[in-house]
Design goal:
The complex is a heterodimer of chains A (271) and B (412).
Chain A lengths: L2 H23 L2 H20 L2 H30 L1 H8 L5 H30 L8 H28 L3 H29 L6 H9 L2 H13 L1 H4 L5 H8 L2 H27 L3
Chain B lengths: L1 H18 L3 E4 L8 H7 L5 E4 L3 E2 L4 E3 L4 E4 L4 E3 L7 E3 L5 E3 L2 E3 L10 E6 L5 E3 L2 E3 L3 E6 L2 E6 L2 E3 L12 E4 L2 E6 L2 E3 L5 E4 L5 E3 L2 E3 L6 E4 L5 E3 L2 E3 L5 E7 L2 E3 L2 E3 L9 E7 L2 E3 L2 E3 L3 E6 L5 E3 L2 E3 L3 E5 L7 E3 L2 E3 L3 E5 L7 E3 L2 E2 L22 H8 L10 H12 L20
Parallel strand pairs in B: 1-2, 2-5, 3-6, 4-7, 5-8, 6-9, 7-10, 8-11, 9-12, 10-13, 11-14, 12-15, 13-16, 14-17, 15-18, 16-19, 17-20, 18-21, 19-22, 20-23, 21-24, 22-25, 23-26, 24-27, 25-28, 26-29, 27-30, 28-31, 29-32, 30-33, 31-34, 32-35, 33-36, 34-37, 35-38, 36-39
The chains are: A mainly alpha (271), B mainly beta (412).
Chain lengths: 271, 412
């Protein structure tokens, strides 16, 4: 490995570590962890049934994980601004500073999610039940959503000096992708119901990471309902592994694009 | 009277065989080399003992009361020429044969074993492969089809036959058979007082079990899996469907159970698991659904219309994408004391019954009925919000369609 690249990587890891420990000390990741822990236990206590809890959890994950990641990402970015500016004064590569911070936040959030939900489910006998695949898929999508929405939040914060504006945009982004997008989507489907819509509806799903994660989970939980629709495109998408592969590929793109923009913008930004 | 007749005749038959019937052995080295020859030589109530070997024969007509007994599953190869065994006499037993290569025809329904206008027959331990129609019972009574194994190779509906077919039959018992890869596993037309139990019917091109114009029949403890479309019960009265399992019937026109023009039936103790549609109901009245389990279906119950005075009690609805789907605003059916896994109410007085009624029909299921592509929005937050508002003040769903006494725990 060339020396410069090696240094860059070392530096990024250092900043990642710093952000990570910073979050650990700041209690926020504990709060997040405890929240998921409590949620997991309460769900299992109320339902006493793994497969039902997995369904409820799905609803929680596709709504709450993006919200928390967005808010947390924006908050962290603004809070550590002074430290960032201090780092910027040093002869360090910019992209490694921001990527390091981003990865620190995203990984601590992901770990809180995985351990917070994992522990109660494992204690309730996850390994002995057949829902383990549904559950791991749930955690994987949760992790993806954390990565995506933290990156989006960092992008918003980087582009907005004004904190209030930044927060506003972040919440709006969440609201749009979690609720409004689906509303418009539904409306468009009903308005154009006379036309063949199966390809359109699948493509429209791809443009929203929340819908995408939902589709991924639907493939596991509701495959029998999805196959009820007459349409060759649907059939090849949901009936084979194509749906799974395409969804995961799209989630990867959704993760990489904002991270790339973060690195790109951070290089050019005037502080 | 009829009930007593069957065991009695079987008894007499066995007595007959041992007391005054003689046994004719059929094998390649015996005096009698073919089954046809054996039938011609035999007198009433004889036993034909077919030894191990391959017999290339078809159109074997059994026109006298005989017992056709195979030893170590002799193979009767029809070489795709036509029908193999035709039974036209009363009191015939066929036991332990391996019949293959039934001819395919588009003008006549060739069967491996056909029973025509006969009484008191018994067909058991028969293995059928490469068949067109398997066991075809025609205008026959008081018979038993027991413990047979039928494996076809059907791919298309138009050039394949049914595993076990009953046409104008009465008082027949179909028990412990395995039917796979044919068109309809078991098919009944104009057949009354039939008992179908402990059978396994799977991977068939069309239906696992199919009723047409047949009344007063009962089927219980059967297992139907991965058929083109589960079980279809059409234009029949007083059918009892008990303790069957319907699994994994997936596809656009697939269901566990299809009811069309069915009156006064009883459906209880059945399990519907992972079907696209658990039960599809059309024009069916006065049916009692009790103690059934609906697990992980796309639609547990789809009501297509013209269904009146049905009652659903003590059923378990677990993790279905949609519990009930209706396409009209009219409701005359009763839902009571079912367990719904989607129920979110509470039970303050601790009597095991939820204090808030449960509305099993979601607004979303109406939207999906209208625009099927919207299914991709299943379980989205937006849909949940819409469903919630509909639940609070029903506009599109029938106002009285609710379970006023939902159970808090699964009913046993």
């Amino acid at each position: 490995m060339p020396l410069r690249l090696y240094q860059h990587k070392q530096l990024m890891l250092k900043i990642l570590k710093y952000s990570f420990y910073d979050l650990m000390r700041s209690r926020w990741s504990y709060v997040y962890f405890l929240f998921y822990l409590a949620l997991g236990f309460v769900l299992l206590f109320l339902n006493n049934d793994l497969s039902k809890a997995v369904i409820t959890l799905m609803n929680v994950i596709i709504v709450l994980v993006p919200l928390i990641s967005t808010i947390f990402g924006v908050m962290y970015f603004y809070n550590s601004k002074e430290f960032t500016e201090l780092l910027l004064a040093q002869p360090l590569k910019r992209s490694s500073i921001f990527l390091g911070q981003y990865l620190g936040v995203a990984s601590s959030l992901t770990m809180s999610l995985i351990f917070g939900l994992g522990i109660p489910f494992v204690l309730y006998g996850l390994f002995r039940s057949d829902t383990i695949w549904d559950f791991s898929l749930l955690l994987i999508t949760g992790a993806f959503l954390t990565l995506i929405f933290t990156a989006l939040a960092f992008n918003i914060a980087l582009s907005n000096e004004n904190k209030i504006k930044g927060f506003g945009y972040a919440v709006l982004l969440w609201l749009f992708l979690a609720v409004i997008y689906d509303g418009l989507f539904l409306l468009s489907l009903i308005v154009f119901e006379d036309y063949p819509l199966d390809s359109y509806s699948l493509v429209a799903t791809m443009f929203n990471p929340i819908d995408l994660s939902r589709t991924l989970i639907l493939l596991k939980l509701d495959i029998s309902a999805l196959l009820g629709y007459t349409g060759a495109v649907f059939k090849s998408f949901f009936g084979t592994n194509l749906g799974l592969l395409v969804s995961i590929a799209m989630l990867l793109i959704w993760t990489i694009l904002p991270i790339w923009r973060l690195a790109y913008k951070s290089k050019r930004k005037d502080f | 009277m009829i009930v007593f007749k069957l065991p009695l005749t079987v008894f007499i038959l066995f007595m007959g065989a041992s007391l005054w019937g003689k046994t004719i052995e059929v094998c390649s080295s015996c005096k009698v080399k073919s089954i046809k020859e054996g039938v011609a030589l035999a007198t009433d109530f004889d036993t034909l003992l077919v030894k191990k070997g391959t017999y290339r024969e078809f159109n074997i007509v059994i026109d006298k009361p005989l017992t056709l007994m195979g030893e170590e599953f002799p193979v009767i190869d029809g070489e795709d020429q036509g029908e193999i065994i035709t039974i036209t006499s009363d009191n015939v037993t066929v036991d332990g044969l391996f019949i293959i290569n039934v001819g395919t025809s588009y003008t006549s329904d060739y069967a491996a074993i056909r029973v025509v206008k006969s009484k008191n027959f018994l067909i058991q331990n028969v293995v059928l492969e490469k068949l067109f129609f398997g066991i075809y019972l025609e205008k026959s009574q008081n018979g038993r089809v027991y413990h047979n194994n039928i494996v076809g190779d059907a791919v298309e509906e138009f050039n394949s036959g049914n595993g076990i077919q009953l046409w104008y039959c009465q008082n027949i018992e179909v028990d412990q058979n395995i039917v796979q890869h044919v068109r309809d596993g078991i098919y009944l037309e104009f057949s009354d007082n039939i008992t179908i139990k402990n059978n396994t019917s799977s991977n068939n091109v069309r239906y696992g079990l199919h009723f047409m114009f047949s009344n007063d029949d009962i089927y219980e403890n059967n297992h139907f899996e991965n058929n083109g479309a589960g079980v279809a019960v059409m234009f029949s009265k007083k059918i009892r469907m008990l303790n069957n399992v319907f699994r994994k019937n997936w596809g656009t026109a697939s269901f566990g159970l299809l009811l069309k023009e069915i009156n006064d039936a009883e459906i209880s103790g059945n399990t519907f698991e992972e079907n696209t549609i658990g039960i599809n109901i059309e024009g069916s009245n006065r049916i009692a659904y009790e103690n059934n389990g609906f697990i992980k279906n796309g639609w547990a119950i789809k009501v297509r219309g013209a269904c009146y005075t049905n009652s659903f009690r003590n059923n378990n609805f677990l993790y279905n994408s949609f519990d009930i789907s209706y396409n009209s605003k009219l409701n005359d059916n009763v839902f009571e004391k079912n367990y719904w896994s989607n129920y979110t109410g509470y039970d303050l007085d601790k009597d095991g019954i939820g204090d808030v009624p449960y509305r099993p029909v979601k607004l979303f299921s109406y939207i999906v009925n209208r625009t099927p592509e919207t299914i991709v929005l299943l379980r989205s937050l937006f849909m949940d919000i819409i469903d919630f508002s509909e639940k609070v003040s029903p506009v599109f769903t029938p106002d009285n369609l609710l379970d006023a006494m939902p159970l808090m725990k699964k009913s046993e």
